[in-house]
Write a structure and sequence with these properties.
Helix 3 packs parallel to helix 7 and helix 5 crosses helix 6. It is globular, with a radius of gyration of 18 Å. It has a six-stranded parallel β-sheet, with helices on both faces. Strands 5-6 form a two-stranded antiparallel sheet. The longest helix is centred in the C-terminal third of the chain and has 15 residues. It is about 35% helix and about 20% strand. It is α/β, with parallel strands linked by helices and about 260 residues long. The two termini are about 25 Å apart.
């Protein structure tokens, strides 16, 4: 079941913003080493926020199929609506940006899509080169009828590392034609809405983040824009510093987001 909010029926004085925060790879509220835990903790004190761990989080990464995991974002939206939210703002960091782009291909009842340091775009040639063996191995195992967890190649902020996951789950994140392609999700959103998306789109990127070189061309330039869309480039910011900045800047962003 999908829960909807009819924004057109909400008067300004009755507006209540709800913020749905989707973390990045092996991150989330259970990660004791999260680089922005203080900032999000403070943000949660002063706002209506849903911040939960998703199936790519710290506890058990890639524990579910990526596309099927969208149900958890929908559950978070439902929770915010039940707490009185009239406007839903979906925030994503790193892999969380790929997740919220995928979610935005399925729903219209959000007020804004706010991406911070987008990461894990399976469409990119640089990523595809790193996972050639793993994609072939996952396909081989599935063809043999074996979907038990196995070891594959993963990457995080420029580092290569091993990861254990079910082959079908791994493919859902890493195959360039699968749901893990942020570029394909951006194309779908553009095809669906033309030049008039029903939600604001905001992207915050840092110049000292090595993962951001392809973000503008691979995501932002493809997405449809409306007058409330905004691209923010922060000089000297790394992959994690964009989160505290965006949370601190949120009151200003809310001034021009419906």
């Amino acid at each position: 079941k999908v829960y909807y909010v009819d924004y057109l029926c909400v008067h300004k004085e009755n507006r209540k913003d709800g913020f749905l925060f989707v973390h990045g790879k092996t991150d989330g509220p259970n990660n004791p080493f999260c680089g922005f835990s203080d900032a999000i903790e403070e943000f949660c004190k002063n706002n209506l926020v849903d911040y939960r761990e998703y199936p790519w989080g710290y506890s058990d990464p890639y524990s579910e199929d990526f596309l099927e995991s969208m149900k958890h974002i929908n559950d978070a939206k439902k929770s915010l609506i039940e707490q009185g939210a009239t406007h839903i703002h979906v925030l994503g960091h790193s892999l969380g940006c790929t997740a919220i782009l995928l979610y935005a291909t399925q729903v219209v009842d959000i007020s804004s899509l706010i991406m911070m340091s987008p990461g894990h775009n399976a469409h990119l040639p640089s990523i595809r080169r790193n996972v050639v063996w793993s994609i072939a191995e996952a396909n081989r195992l599935i063809e043999e009828g074996n979907n038990e967890p196995a070891h594959f190649i993963d990457f995080n902020n420029g580092m290569i590392m091993p990861i254990k996951a079910r082959p079908s789950n791994y493919l859902s994140y890493f195959h360039h034609e699968g749901p893990g392609s942020a570029t394909n999700s951006a194309i779908t959103i553009k095809q669906k809405y033309g030049n008039n998306p029903p939600f604001s789109i905001i992207l915050v990127s840092g110049t000292d983040d090595m993962t951001q070189g392809t973000v503008k061309g691979g995501i932002w330039d493809i997405l449809p824009k409306n007058k409330q869309s905004k691209y923010i480039e922060k000089i000297g910011y790394d992959h994690f510093q964009t989160v505290p900045f965006t949370l601190d800047y949120m009151p200003e962003l809310m001034k021009f987001v419906n």
